[in-house]
């Protein structure tokens, strides 16, 4: 294939990224004057300033003006909408352990309330048609803001009706009335329904069929049947399959095989085969890896592997070491007996999340059970290398970008920071990471995010308790 001029230019940028990496890695430690620090204050200032420019009525800007030219795909056209900007900005600030002031929070909650459609869901602005992507952005924003006023502003009854209207006979969901059916739509609907505690069997009917049909010969997941596997859709498909307890229907060894080849020599992730690495895939691919790390029992089952613990403990899936280094196979799994979902190590969680015929799992608990305990699978990517790409190639003075040569934007800032958080916790969410897990000073440590929803963990827990109380 003959490369176009733009591609040639892009390869030069890639070469530049690789050079930066080589330069840093080949210097003896004492000669490394590289600053790996996260420019936290600058990032928070950039983000807060951008959010303020949207207010007080949030009527000034639309997301399309703030997006970089990094991606031209339909996702970004469809992603237009101020709820997305709110999510990217507020989530980024929260991942850095900071928050916006009360006045700005109130403005955001009020604005999003005006985007809420009387018949359910959120549009890209007041009076706009409700859309599943903006609904996901709005709900994740309101959860990140937290507090009773913000959480109770979400109308869960009309939301459920909106989801039913978007559901297609194929099992998939439409992004909006008359819109396209794809894996993003499945994920956004399922993710929001799960976190709001309104997921039921009517909503999940045949969703697993649809998503399974999108897994490609490469092993990753495409946006729709017959398309190319891509990191963004792979994250969406995998997370949705976990939330509906159907993840065992994906070919996980093949998915892992695809995923592990997506981290490039430049240390960042690419979204699909033969494309350039890009900071935003730190989350889409890194998050996918973090999810798979909690599915080792299903992976083992699919590989036909049955384990006997060397140190002789019983054949119980809850006996994994609390150490994140616990290798694949240190757990006992009798083929065919493990939980389809949540085969995590749960030393302190008696019976949490077990899902089989005799212990039917409560659908809305899946996301919560999934993150309990530690993981038993070794990391599926090189975390230190990804942190290098993020801190040296994606980080700007303020904000983050796709790669050198591109400009910062809120979308990349959000997903690069989310990916960095995934690197820091590397599967362990319950205990603080060790200094050896963090590139740069320990003060770089970010807040943990729930890998299925991409919401800061504390905020997720608050929302879950709130929606469990308000049936
Ligand atoms: C929750 C939610 C709505 C998730 C969306 C997931 C997501 C990012 C999907 C990717 C869309 C896509 C095909 C991008 C390719 O863009 P490109 O061709 O510009 O980039 P590439 O060269 O890196 O593939
Ligand atoms: Zn990107």
Taken as a percent bin, the fraction of beta residues is: under 5%
User: Any idea what the CATH architecture is?
Assistant: Alpha/alpha barrel
How many strand units? 2
Order of helices and strands: HHHHHHHHHHHHHHHHHHHEEH
Please give a structural write-up:
The structure is a single chain. With 471 residues, the chain is mainly α. It has one domain (40-50, 79-304, 363-470): Alpha/alpha barrel (Glycosyltransferase), CATH 1.50.10.20. It has 20 helices and two strands. It has helices spanning 5-25, 40-54, 63-66, 74-78, 82-95, 102-115, 132-145, 148-152, 156-166, 183-195, 201-204, 207-212, 231-243, 252-260, 281-292, 296-303, 366-370, 383-394, 410-425, 457-469; strands at 449-450, 455-456. Strands 1-2 form a two-stranded antiparallel ribbon. The radius of gyration is 21 Å and the shape is globular. The N and C termini lie far apart (57 Å).
């Amino acid at each position: 294939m003959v490369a176009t001029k733009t591609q040639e230019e892009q390869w030069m940028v890639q070469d530049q990224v690789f050079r930066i990496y080589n330069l840093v890695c080949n210097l003896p430690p004492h000669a490394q004057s590289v600053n790996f620090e996260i420019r936290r204050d600058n990032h928070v200032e950039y983000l807060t300033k951008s959010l303020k420019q949207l207010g007080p009525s949030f009527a000034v800007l639309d997301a399309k003006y703030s997006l970089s030219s990094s991606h031209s795909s339909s996702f970004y056209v469809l992603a237009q909408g101020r709820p997305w900007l709110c999510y990217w900005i507020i989530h980024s600030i929260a991942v850095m352990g900071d928050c916006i002031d009360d006045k700005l929070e109130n403005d955001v909650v009020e604005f999003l309330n005006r985007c809420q459609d009387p018949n359910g869901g959120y549009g890209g602005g007041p009076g706009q048609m409700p859309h599943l992507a903006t609904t996901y952005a709005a709900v994740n924003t309101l959860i990140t803001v937290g507090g009773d006023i913000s959480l109770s502003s979400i109308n869960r009854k009309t939301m459920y009706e909106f989801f039913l209207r978007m559901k297609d006979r194929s099992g998939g969901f439409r992004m909006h009335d008359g819109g396209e059916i794809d894996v993003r739509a499945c994920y956004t609907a399922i993710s929001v329904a799960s976190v709001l505690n309104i997921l039921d069997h009517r909503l999940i009917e045949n969703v697993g069929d649809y998503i399974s049909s999108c897994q490609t010969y490469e092993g990753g997941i495409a946006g729709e049947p017959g398309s190319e596997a891509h990191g963004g859709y792979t994250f969406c498909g995998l997370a949705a399959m976990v939330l509906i307890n159907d993840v065992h229907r994906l070919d996980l060894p093949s998915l892992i095989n695809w995923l592990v080849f997506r981290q490039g020599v430049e240390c960042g992730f690419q979204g699909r085969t033969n494309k350039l690495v890009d900071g935003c895939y730190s989350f889409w691919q890194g998050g996918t890896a973090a999810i798979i790390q909690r599915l080792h029992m299903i992976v083992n089952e699919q590989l036909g592997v049955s384990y006997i613990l060397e140190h002789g403990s019983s054949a119980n899936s809850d006996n994994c070491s609390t150490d994140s280094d616990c290798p694949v196979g240190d757990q006992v799994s009798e083929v065919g007996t493990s939980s389809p979902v949540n085969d995590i190590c749960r030393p302190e969680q008696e019976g949490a999340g077990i899902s089989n015929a005799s212990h039917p799992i409560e659908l809305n608990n899946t996301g919560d059970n999934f993150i309990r305990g530690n993981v038993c699978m070794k990391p599926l990517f090189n975390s230190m290398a990804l942190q290098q790409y993020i801190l040296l190639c994606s980080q700007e003075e303020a904000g983050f970008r796709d790669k050198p040569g591109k400009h910062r934007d809120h979308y990349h800032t959000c997903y690069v920071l989310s990916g960095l958080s995934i690197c820091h916790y590397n599967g362990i969410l319950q205990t603080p990471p060790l200094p050896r897990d963090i590139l740069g000073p320990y003060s770089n440590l970010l807040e943990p995010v729930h890998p299925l929803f991409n919401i800061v963990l504390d905020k997720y827990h608050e929302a879950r308790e709130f929606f469990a109380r308000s049936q």
